[in-house]
Amino acid sequence: MMLSYEAIQTFLYQEARALDEQRWADWLAFYAADVEFFMPSWDDDSKLTNDPTNEVSLIYYPSRQGLEDRVFRIETDRSSATTPDTRTGHAITNLEVLSQDETRCELHFNWVTHSFRYNVVDVYFGSSDYTLDTSGAKPLIKRKYIVLKNDYIHHMLDIYHI
User: Fold this and answer.
1) CA-CA distance, 48 to 113, in Å (whole number)?
2) Which member of 7, 18, 92, 129 lies 3.0 to 4.6 Å from 26 by CB, making a disulfide possible if both were Cys?
C-alpha cells in the first residue's frame, strides 16, 4: 500500500505516544518480527560505528524478540535503567519520505525526547531512519536506525529515550 505523508506522520506520532504512555504492547505492535533496531555509538566525534556485531553499539536488537525481552524487564521492574519510572515526551520534526513503493517506505526524521527522572529533565536528540513494510494491512517497522547526537548522557539510556 502507498501511504500518504499524513498517514506516515500519524504512524510515527502514534508510536511515540505509545512510548510516552508506556503502552508497551501497543508499542511492540509497530514492529515486524524481523525488525533490526540499531543505535550505533560514536567511534569518534564524526564517525559512527556501523557493524553491530563487531563494534560497540548503544542499542542493538536483531529482531523484535530483543525488544520484547527489554519490555519484559521494564514491565517486571527488572530494569535498573527504568527504576524509578521515567516520564518522557517525544517530538518529531523534519519528516522526509525518501522513497516508497507498494511494499516499502523509507523515511528520515529528527526527534527530541525530554525525560524526567530523579527530579532532573534530560534532553536527548537525534535522527532516525525507518524502513516500513507496507505490504500488509498496517505498516510495520522493519528497520529502525537511530543516531543519538548527544551521546554524553547522565543516566542509562533505554528504548523509550529515543
Assistant:
1) 21
2) 18
Q: Where are the beta strands (DSSP E) in 62-138?
A: 87-100, 104-117, 120-133
Q: Quick check: 20 and 89 in contact, CB under 8 A?
A: yes
Give the cell for residue 47.
564517525
How far is it, in rounded angstroms, from Cα 88 to Cα 160? 7
The one-digit pLDDT tens for each residue of the chain (162 residues) are: 999 999 999 999 999 999 999 999 999 999 999 999 999 999 887 899 999 999 999 999 999 999 999 999 988 877 766 777 889 999 999 999 999 999 999 999 999 999 998 888 999 999 999 999 999 999 999 999 999 998 777 778 889 888
